[in-house]
Amino acid sequence: MKIQFELNGTTHYVDIDAGESLLNLVRRLGALSARSGCEVGDCGSCTVLLDGRPVRGCITFAAKAQGRVVTTVEGLGTMDDLHPLQQAFLDTGAVQCGYCTPGMILVAYELLTKEEDPTAEQIRDALAGNLCRCTGYRKIVDAVQLAARRKAEGLWR
Amino acid sequence: MAVTERNYAVAGHNVTKVDGAALVCGSPKFALDVELPGSLVGKILRSPHAHARIKSIDTAEAESIPGVACVLHHGNVPRIAHTTAGQGWPEPSPYDSFLFDSKVRYVGDQVAAVAAVDERTAEQALRKIRVEYEVLPPVLSLDEALAEGAPVIHDEPDSEGIYDATRNVAAAVDIPVGDVDAALGRAEATVEITCEIPYSQHVPLEPHCVLAYFDEDGRLVLRTSTQVPFHVRRIVARVLDIPMQRIRVIKPRIGGGFGVKQEILLEPVAGALALRARRPVRMAFSREEEFVSSRTRHPMRVRVAVGAGKDGMLQALEMEATSNTGAYGTHALTVLSNTGSKTLPLYNKAPALRFHGRAAYTNLPVAGAYRGYGATQGYFPLEVAMDQLAEALGMDPVDLRLKNHIQEGETSPIFEKIGEGREGVPQVVRSCKLAECLQVGEERFGWREKRAAPRHSGPWSYGVGVACAMQGSGITGIDMGAATIMMTEDGSFRLHAGATDLGTGSDTVLAQIAAEVLGVPVEKVTVYSSDTDFTPFDVGAYASSTTYVSGTAVLRAAQDVRSQILSVAAGALSQPAEDLLLEGERVRAPDGQSLTLAEVGHRAAYVVDQHQIAATASSVPQESPPPFAAFFAEVGVDRETGIVRLERMLGVADCGVALHPDLAQGQLEGAMAQGVGQALFEELGFSQRGRCVTTNLLDYRIPATLDVPDLQAVLLDSYEPSGPLGAKSIAEIGINGPLPALSNAMYHALGVRLTRAPFTPARVLEALEQGR
């Protein structure tokens, strides 16, 4: 079947398999930041935003993207022009292997659209479904708080 | 600039991680982020039995499926005994593994492999392979394995290096120092405890994966998620019986390793399939395969006996370990040795010591290298025993440790007696800030006040516990790291390191070392790691080695390049090289003249005495300076449900100079979180027939944000004289603390000892019941 949807600002009209996952679809369209970690929705490494809401790419049918907007971190910033949230992850040392990082950033991005000044508890709650094996999470929470401060200062887009 | 001084311009600062911008943008950097046209998908057929002989295997139907390129099994590949452990040479692990064997030794063992056009076809082909098994009685526990008359797991005649195959003993160690029995008998206070650590798994977010293809000359290229690219090359050459020269191994970004990627697992299978099919092959473990068929921590039962005088001075220390290596003996001897060698020197005041133990085969998943590498298994009972001893003597556990721990200028006979599967090397500890770690920790944690009495609130009891640990920095006399630094004529540098950044940040730390010596900001150093064709040799990332071993190689190469730069500048400025100063991207003469590095580079490349400014240097560690740490934990336990909640955990460490404090802290905090998981809920479960039943991240939980709400690492100011710019290691030590610290905290809260990890609600309730 064919679906039409927007991925990081570009409209795609693509053939998909009936059982294809959204993760597979965005990866074959070049958004490689979404990565498989468990295939069953437990780890959060494949998180993408569907109409601004985080979903697990591995357990979401590609067909659900029909007519909707999908965002991955490739849609937030580029290496030459990082989004302030991406910059905050770098500035706080929240990135180690980086495999979980895109998913973390997307969940934090949505949190910061709802909460201007989230507490550490709210951040931990929002990120509770995204696993990281490298950091111990403290620096990730710090990154989101730093990003919130920068957003309050008007450094956002 | 003298780099032995501490006023560093780049080192010791939180520079931006060199691969950080790419990682936050999700750039295609991992092994399987590359697609090659015509790639096949490789899949492995796994054993449904814990112990069986393959009577026959029929692949005709599988091979007839359109899209199936080839099927490999024991009948059509060479039989070459090897170890999957990516270690130095000579290899200390037994050669007891075969690419495919006519016998399977655990549920999940490798039976056959298929390459097909896509995943669906490959899976269909796996289902069509007909295997007839002769099921053998399985050995599903340590006690069964070591019992008289137990089924022999490795009865094949062509394995080598097994300690005693007929008794299922893969490895054994017995190192006495003095007469420990007599010393224990004489001691005024003695304690003894046995602790057990279960099967646990590393759970890197990126499971093992590899892309095998051919270069323009038909050489086999393996783009693989590994910690040990050079060992991959050596072992794949052996297993596939092809010259090392025909293999190139590329290590891209790695999504975590923690030791599990120190194993050569998928690479020979993907390589063999690619060679047979003459097409690229991609393979990845599913999360289930990662749990069952990759590697785990060695489950261990460890007994510790400690004897001390009334004054608290240790007089005798005995440790006995019984280790379960699973179906194959990968790392069996070295993990076992490390259980003693990385723990007993911490309390070097005891004149009588003994470490002894055995590693047994079972028909269960294969244990391997896992962060902590045996030390984690040893520290659990050792640090619980210290808590018991403190109680027996009426001392504060912090004070007991302050009295007994090793200090600067001291040694332990263990350093010389136990090495990496052979004798060790004597060593004097040159930096040790463990006393400060304990003192800073107890103050920040509010230890004395909280330790005075446990708190109770309804069904909840709260207690605090402490534990100490050390580790090492690389493997003395065995590890080797090398690095090449080349100058580009614009005044920038290319650092080619065999060292393996698996998410630790070592590329950044190595760039900092080079930048510090070369007087440039870190952005002027482009790091390339690691590729067996284009970077010099390095044993890889394990044994907490990269900063110390590979970092020293980078330091030496940078010093060499620096003197070459000064020599070129000396010619241009007509000044003696020894009068020149290299800093801030310029070479400066005393008379005020100066040259930019770009001018130096340009001169060497195009103008006078043209040559490439470059140097390669190697490093083989002559000692392995231990990092030290103290861990403080506060737990809450619900006495009615047995639920345990970590309230707070603080780790204070001496890692020498933290070359990148944020990354070093991240290593320590990450390891502590992993240790908390081991203490509270991580355990592989098995059916009665030996089938692993915890094969996803719901049945096997790892800590999430809410499980480690207040976990923090502090690094103390320290300087290791033998280390690059004063650094030693930090990667593993953090995982040694949580198990004993939490067990001790629970004893403080409840008055019962938890000696079997993880401390699940059922075990807590059982302990409370028995304590009544």
| Shape by Cα distribution of chain A | globular
The profile of the biggest β sheet of chain B is: 7 strands, mixed
Q: At the third CATH level, what is the topology name of the largest domain in chain B?
A: Aldehyde Oxidoreductase, domain 4
Radius of gyration of chain A, whole Å? 15 Å
- Report the oligomer: heterodimer
If classified by CATH, what would the architecture of the largest domain in chain B be?
2-Layer Sandwich
CATH class of the largest domain in chain A: Alpha Beta
Q: How do the SSEs of chain A run, as a string of H and E?
A: EEHEEEHHHH
- Rounded mean pLDDT of chain A is 97
What does this entry look like structurally?
- The complex is a heterodimer of chains A (157) and B (772).
- Chain A has 157 residues and is α+β, with helices and mostly antiparallel strands.
- Chain A has two domains: 2-75, Ubiquitin-like (UB roll) (Roll); 84-152, DNA polymerase, domain 1.
- In chain A, 32% of the residues lie in helices and 15% in strands.
- Chain A has five helices and five strands, in the order ββαβββαααα.
- In chain A, β3 and β4 (53-56) form a beta hairpin.
- In chain A, α2 (84-91) crosses α5.
- Chain B has three domains: 20-29 and 480-619, Aldehyde Oxidoreductase, domain 4, CATH 3.30.365; 34-136 and 205-256 and 261-293, Aldehyde Oxidoreductase, domain 3, CATH 3.90.1170; 300-475 and 623-771, 2-Layer Sandwich (Aldehyde Oxidoreductase, domain 4).
- Chain B contains 20 helices and 27 strands.
- The radius of gyration of chain B is 27 Å and the shape is globular.
- Chains A and B meet through α2, α3, α4 and α5 of A and α1, α18 and β27 of B.
Throw out a few tags for this protein.
heterodimer; A: 157 residues; alpha+beta; Ubiquitin-like (UB roll); 5 helices; B: alpha+beta; Aldehyde Oxidoreductase, domain 4; 3 domains; 7-stranded mixed sheet; 5-stranded mixed sheet; 27 strands
